[in-house]
Amino acid sequence: MKNIHILSHVLIDHKMAKLRSVTTGTKEFRELIEELSTLVAYEALADIPTVEIVVSTPLESVTQNIIKEKSIALVPILRAGLGMVNGVITLLPTAKVGHIGMCRNEETLQPESYYCKLPANIEDKLVIVLDPMLATGGSAIEAINILKGLGVKHIKMMNILAAPIGLKEVSKAHPDVQVYVAKVDRCLNENGYILPGLGDAGDRIYGTK
Fold first, then answer.
1. N or C terminus of the chain with fewer C-beta within 10 Å?
2. Is residue 1 predicted with pLDDT exceeding 90?
3. What pLDDT was estimated at residue 61?
């Protein structure tokens, strides 16, 4: 799967250990999600659009590359994806932010969109989809389907934790989408939770369980 990028760094391992722990409280869990998002974003944003400008230093002029204005949009998948936004905004303070809400149809067991609000001219931007957990891949695939249906041609995805089956399914459905993930775990349990995992990311971010 050439479009899958699994990160390896001692800082990621250190923060992931704390993130997984059942003793980690809501405040620290949120902070760790943001910090890990920044680390993943550092890798995912290495080839984002740039333009060349001339900068005057106190001594002389120099040519530098800067990020192309209005070229990037962040799209978290609600609700857990919201927890990653601030970590990426740290690096891209002017990025536009849209939202896609996904839920599971209890009859078909397939993901369905219940909310979609995206920045203007989304089709002209590099769109980075954010979701801490990539389990079955269903929500990610549907969110990407929505974006492509609106004409978006350049999409990346960022995850904190993924299951092998989720990565396989996203890669099969969207081989053109580059996926950046901090850590890949063993498998899913019978309820679709990643093992060993970290529990329900949304509940732990917002303290709802």
1. C
2. no
3. 97
Q: Maximum CA pair distance of the chain?
A: 68
More confident residue, 16 or 109: 16
0.85 surpassed by pTM: yes
Is residue 204 flagged as an active site residue?
no
**203 is a catalytic site residue:** yes
Nearest CA among 80, 105, 73, 56 for reference residue 159? 80
Domains and CATH numbers, the chain: 4-206 (3.40.50.2020)
Options 20, 30, 38, 200, the catalytic residue: 200
CA dihedral 20, 26, 32, 33 (to 10 degrees): 90
Q: Which of 108, 124, 185, 186 is catalytic?
A: 108
Match 């769109």 to its residue by tokens.
Answer: 127
8 A C-beta contact, residue 129 and residue 180:
no
Q: Are 98 and 155 in contact (CB under 8 A)?
A: no
Distance CA 160, CA 182 (A): 5
The single residue of 24, 30, 104, 124 carrying the catalytic annotation is 104
Query: Is cis: bond before 20, omega within 30 of 0?
Result: no
pLDDT digits (tens, 9 = 90+) for 44-54: 999 998 999 99
